[in-house]
Design brief:
CATH architecture: 4-Layer Sandwich
CATH class: Alpha Beta
CATH topology: Chorismate synthase, AroC fold
Structural class: alpha+beta
Distance between the termini: 38 Å
Number of strands: 18
Oligomer: single chain
Strand order of the largest sheet: 1-2-3-7-4
Order of helices and strands: EEEHEEEEHHEEHHEHEHEEEEEEEHH
Number of domains: 1
Radius of gyration: 21 Å
Number of helices: 9
Strand content: 15-25%
Largest sheet: 5 strands, antiparallel
Bound molecules: flavin mononucleotide, the ligand C=C(O[C@@H]1CC(C(=O)O)=C[C@@H](OP(=O)(O)O)[C@H]1O)C(=O)O
């Protein structure tokens, strides 16, 4: 097993390398009867695809998706859905300079030592390009969730030291500026910051925030498949993610219980309410029925143009000045990847939720 599958009830298996002929995904466990066409998937793929702004890798890929199976007359059939996306603009020759040298910060050294063989053309399975397949699967998971009134929205919260000002928050901005920042002012400053780093051959990191709305309480299993644990696994499996926090996150460790607890208030007209959401919408690993909020920290892109010390495959010290096409910042293109991994996880655990109570099983069979 190559660890390329996630999920138990809604399984997603990605395949393909950055410099192979194509990449793709098999989604198994999608219920029958959901309207699905290539455009539904393409919309999200277009948000991730490379070459669309000066703040992205200039590699030009159309990332056009083809549905190979599992859909008939525009509706899912309940059988495995197989999707393929061609690679068109590999430039594999760019990588001849690192055929015998390990790139600092990328997976070259660890992959080579794990497998004893290293396809040096691009990052292979470790390439950010693998996330195209995740986004395609995520679009299917989102279609399932849209039928249930669950909505997932991620955006860039910060790039380097530049943060979104909550007072300027404008959801439309996420789709208006190429940095997917819900604050036009912050996006302008972040663009300048990235431009300065690009000129030096350096790169930036940042934080993606994700909000899940409309998810009822009761989703998530009590022990190993806690909703926060499952989301953490899914999000941490995205290349370059170095941390995740829910709600108040790491800050909670510095508070007292009275400061951190979310108090509960019931109003006959509004039902149960929580004036704060320090928990991020999950307690005991189970969704509360309030918005789920988490943040993922992305490291700066490892492939940079500045001279770096490294070693050759035969352990000679050397200096590397990388050429090739890379994202000066990963975060804006990863926003939709975060949404996809969250959607896949939520659907998987939602299906498990139905199996946790006899009344829900009876309802499903009636
Ligand atoms: C959407 C996306 C785009 C990425 N683009 C690049 C890139 O252009 N160049 C690069 O060196 N790494 C890029 N990465 C990061 C590498 O994939 C990642 O750093 C590598 O797999 C090593 O894994 P680690 O950083 O999690 O340890 C990208 C990641 C994602 C998710
Ligand atoms: C092509 C994409 O991004 C790539 C992610 C990536 C990496 O190392 O992660 C390295 C670059 O790949 P290559 O050097 O093979 O062009 C980026 O262009 C993509 O995301 O679609």
């Amino acid at each position: 097993m190559s660890g390329s599958t996630i999920g138990k009830n809604f399984t997603v298996t990605t395949w393909g390398e950055s410099h192979g002929k194509a990449l793709g995904v098999v989604v198994d466990g999608c219920p029958a009867g959901i309207p699905l066409c290539e455009e539904d998937i393409q919309r999200d793929l277009d948000r991730r695809k490379p070459g669309q702004s000066p703040y992205s890798t200039p590699r030009r890929e159309e990332d056009k998706v083809t549905i190979l199976s599992g859909v008939f007359q525009g509706v899912t059939t309940g059988t495995p859905i197989s999707l393929i996306i061609a690679n068109q603009d590999q430039h594999s020759k760019d990588y001849s300079q690192v055929a015998h040298v390990y790139r600092p910060g990328h997976a070259d050294y660890t992959y080579h030592h794990k497998y004893g063989i290293w396809d040096y053309r691009g990052g292979g399975r470790a390439s950010g390009r693998e996330t195209a397949a995740r986004v395609a699967a995520g679009a299917i998971a989102k279609k399932v969730l849209s039928q249930l009134g669950v909505r997932i929205q991620a955006y860039t919260l910060s790039i380097g030291p530049i943060k979104v000002n909550p007072e300027n928050f404008d959801e439309n901005e996420i789709y208006r500026n190429p940095l997917a920042m819900p604050d036009g002012e912050a996006a302008k400053k972040a663009a300048e910051y990235i431009q300065q780093l690009k000129e030096k051959g350096d790169s930036a990191g940042g934080v993606v925030e994700c909000v899940i709305q409309g998810l009822p309480s009761g989703v998530g299993e009590p022990v190993f498949d806690k909703l926060d644990a499952a989301l953490a696994k899914a999000i941490m499996s995205i290349g370059a993610v170095k941390g995740i926090e829910f709600g108040r996150g790491f800050e909670a460790a510095y508070l007292t219980g009275s400061q951190n607890n979310d108090t509960l208030v019931y109003y006959p007209d509004r039902g149960l309410t929580k004036p704060t959401n320090n928990s991020g919408g999950i307690t005991g690993g189970i969704s509360e029925g309030f918005p789920i909020v988490f943040r993922a920290a992305f490291k700066p892109t490892p492939s940079i143009r500045m001279p770096q010390k490294t070693v050759t495959h035969d352990m000679q010290n050397t200096q590397l000045v990388l050429t090739g096409r890379h994202d000066p910042v990963i975060v804006p293109r990863a926003v939709v990847v975060v949404e996809a991994m969250a959607a896949i996880t939520i659907v998987d655990l939602l299906f498990q939720r139905i199996l946790s109570r006899i009344d829900l099983i009876k309802k499903a069979l009636s």
